[in-house]
Design goal:
Distance between the termini: 39 Å
Radius of gyration: 17 Å
CATH architecture of one domain: Up-down Bundle
CATH class of one domain: Mainly Alpha
Order of helices and strands: HHHHH
Number of strands: 0
Mean pLDDT: 83
Strand content: under 5%
Shape: globular
Number of helices: 5
């Protein structure tokens, strides 16, 4: 079942069901390889979504600038990684994009914690991030299957010295 899901993610990454819809861009036909990646399309969609949110926030708010930089970093790293020829190089940039997307999710949580946004206001952005992160993980696993994985450890479990 897991292999079937991974195959589906890979197929969707390289053969999207519809042409990309880049908000605010003139052309809908991809010209570059990275534009065909759904992970990249989701990253651009998140940048467009974030831009509207950022306009409503005070310029002096530190998390505003952090969210702007992190959201911009996601598609840039995907594009740069997709242009690399070796699996380790590609994975390194896709990992950077993944980490920046997680940083974006944390920024949205900080905005809620500070009372600048409500959970319902950031829900759409988080949904875009979840989709993009899933695609990035699938893309990385398709390039290097053993790259992403962690040992399962119970949260809060204390290690005992031997």
């Amino acid at each position: 079942m897991l292999m079937l899901m991974l195959l589906l993610v890979i197929l969707l990454l390289f053969f999207p069901l519809s042409s990309p819809n880049f908000s605010g861009m003139q052309s809908t036909t991809p010209s570059f390889d990275h534009e065909r990646l759904i992970a990249y399309q989701r990253a651009i969609q998140f940048v467009a979504w974030t831009s509207q949110l950022l306009e409503s926030l005070p310029a002096k708010l530190a998390v505003r600038d952090q969210l702007d930089r992190a959201s911009t970093s996601v598609p840039l790293n995907i594009a740069e990684g997709n242009g690399k020829h070796t699996a380790p190089d590609r994975c390194r940039y896709f990992d950077s994009a993944r980490v920046s997307a997680l940083e974006c999710a944390a920024c949205l949580d900080v905005l809620v914690a500070k009372g600048r946004c409500g959970p319902e206001q950031i829900a759409a952005g988080k949904q875009i991030l979840v989709e993009g992160l899933s695609l990035l993980i699938g893309l990385t696993r398709s390039i290097s299957p053993d790259r992403l994985g962690e040992e399962v450890v119970a949260y809060g479990a204390e290690s005992t010295p031997e």
